[in-house]
Amino acid sequence: MKKHINLWLVMFLAISLALPVYSMAQVTLTLEDPTGNRIVTPGIKSFAVGTDNNLVIYLDQPFNFKDLIPDISLASCTNCSIAGPAGVTATQGANLSFNVQSTDTSAVISLVASSYEIGPRTLTSTSGSAPFSWSTGSTLTGSYLAVFQALDGDQKSQLPVMINVVPPGYSLTINATNGSVTKSPNQATYTLSPVQTVQLTANAEAGYYFTGWSGALSGSTSPASITMDASKTVTATFAPIPPTQYSLTVTVSPSSAAGSVSLNPSGGLYTAGTPVTLTASANTGAGYTFGSWSGVDSSNGTTASVTMPSSDKAVTATFTTPTPVGDPLAWGLRNFNISGSPGLKRTFTITVAQGMTYGTFSIYSLDPNTDFTFKFTPVPGYQYYGRSVYTGAIQYGMLTLQFDSGSFSPKTSDGTIPPGNYTLEITFNDTGRITITSTIY
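The structure corresponding to this sequence follows.
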């Protein structure tokens, strides 16, 4: 009778070395020595773990390989999945079934050992194959052992199968419009034990961009991770990519004190082709009036229009300087106050009557650092010598224009002031106040 090596020792060593159970299916080897005699009880010289995590046994005597009884395998798993040669995973409450088969069609398949929860059961074996089924129940979870055997005469092979019953998976529902979300790992459900973490990546369609997450996930970072400790719903929001906007810059001349310009629609940033209406408003209180537009497509008085091109655009609104205020300047003024802002110009007429012999106009600033420029023009045909220059800047000081016959050239024959209209022009360089006082003799 043939005698074979029973490799339950192999299983014991595999478990002791913490090797995967599914890699340790039991087989029976038939060995001969070099003379052709069967080796009944070979001595084990040593053993080691191979690179494939299988146990390798070295015998202490030479032998020739003679025969190997076919191994057992699993197939056709229903309500479960096969992991490796000898692992099965099923969800809690599943009615699972799979086939245990051998390439030896004469072998009888049976369940020779099992965990208490599985219990003994009879398998119907035909042509080296037998179906196995088990209802896991609604409360059962964990790992359970079932040992199957293929027996053909005195030759047998055994396969320990570990059945893992896991809790029901949690679902992850994704909502997305104008884009999609990639899940990693991409599964229909996710287990509680162990708890799984899923990475979500938002993918926008052409013309859209990702704006953020809502539901069970928040923020706008992509990829983002979510812990599947319950069934969850996540929504990815995508928005249209806005078209490029261009700036419409408006300059007020001579300065912002002259007036303002409003835009409709407001904002100053527009997409190409947007019509914009501009309306100018003069600072009439300071004596300004609207003058003209430049850089616009069309205009009608204080209103102009622009259709934005595919580039930035600049427009200028020009306001005219104020009309003279306090014209003419009367002799004998006392503290005639004038307020002004940068660029504001005041023009005054001083009338000298025939026979006047002496008079003064004193101009001085009322506020610190109020800078103003003056220009004095005498009557035609005369040169004024009251000051060495006729234009200049005064800052928080006083200018006195003195009228007498000695201040003019040529001099009048009768020693009086040349009669006529004199012009005094004052331009403000800062915001502030000045005052004018005059005397006459």
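Residues 344 and 428 are 5 Å apart (CA to CA).
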